[in-house]
Amino acid sequence: MAHGEVIQGRWSNRMTFILAASGSAVGLGNIWRFPYTAGEYGGGAFVLVYLLCIAAIGLPIMAAEIMLGKRGRGSPVSALTALARAHNAAGAWRSIGWLGMLTGALILSFYSVIGGWTLDYAVSAAAGRLAGLDAARAHDLFSAMIGDPYRLFVSHTLFMGLAMLVVARGVSGGLERAIRWLMPTLFVLLIGLVVFAAQTGDFVRGLRYLFEPDFAAFGNRAGEAVLSAMGQAFFSLSLGMGAIMVYGAYMQEGTVVGRSTVLIAGIDTLVALLAGMVVFPIVFANGLEPAVGPGLIFETLPIAFAELPAGRLFATLFFILLMIAAWTSAISVLEPAVAWLAEATHATRRRATLLAGGTIWLLGIACLLSLNNWSHITLFGKGILDLLDFVTSNVMLPLGGMLIAVFAGWVVSRSATLETFGISDRFTFTAWRLLVRYVAPVGVACVFAHAVGLL
Prior knowledge:
The protein has 18 helices and no strands. By secondary structure, the chain is mainly alpha-helical. The chain is globular and about 65 Å long. The mean pLDDT is 88.
């Protein structure tokens, strides 16, 4: 048995765990990245492939991460160390934990900068600075923010401070309290924005674009679209960073892994689809282009809000929604490093949070400067932020996810896995084991190979 006693605490009930893990998964990937990626690949066909990838790759790896955390009962490093020892496997398997924590720290360094953009835009929307925008002014507004290092420093510091404030207070006093009001708030805002889009946008066209598969829209990019959907499915669930694993470590003993995983992935997918139901009807109603890429949220959508009744209010609510989604993810990405520091050094939560969060905050300053004053500093043709984004998203996350699948499917014994899953349905368990052993590793390997130019 690799069960240990959790140093950091446990969730008070199953629903809190599901909300917390959903908060980890729901982030900018759902509300910012999903709509523009779907837009780039023609909508419905991409969405269908994305949903299939969630089922075949995302769900099995998420269940594996939760299972490993629940079984190992500690930070990703200590949990994998204990599990490897319990199964007479090489100690090198603990490197999956190190890789996940490093990946999460690097991601949070630039994620916090982008999270700061959402704070900045929420304030700008509330102050009426997004009113009356045309395409040129929207572009200039975004460029002015990106080009101002002091403005980015303030928003990055505020956003990182919000994440550290919650994590420093611990599992019950910080994570649980924050999640209990942040996630319901997120859903209320999202549903309100869907109603707004239904009343003011071209809702029917938006729904058809999102849910009617037209594989002709892929054109000669079918392979690229499938791999992109696979990558989106993987990254939107926050896999490969140790965040889901450490949340699994705080599960109550009787919580069923499989059922909880399906609920978490379902909530995450629902949020992505609802975000599309907000964005596309508004974009179409204003004659704008859905396939504009990453600028869809920060440059295109403000133009649409500016033309709509009560646009100022709903633009403010939209960017608050975006900020909350980013905040819940940032909390979960910071948690593994803090949990490990508290375990390894016996430091208090506050001290561990200051050390881990402070280090990530400093790296974030380099990321925000790479958008302006340090834009001349490049490696492989990329600035610091873009390079970290590329390496973590395309190399480190897929590698971590693939190793988690292999470790859970091939190293941890069938009996130990079955006991930790807590299910009596052998068919479901066998299906998961087949997916995590064969399908998921091959799928993630394809994403990795495509990212580095081998596919």
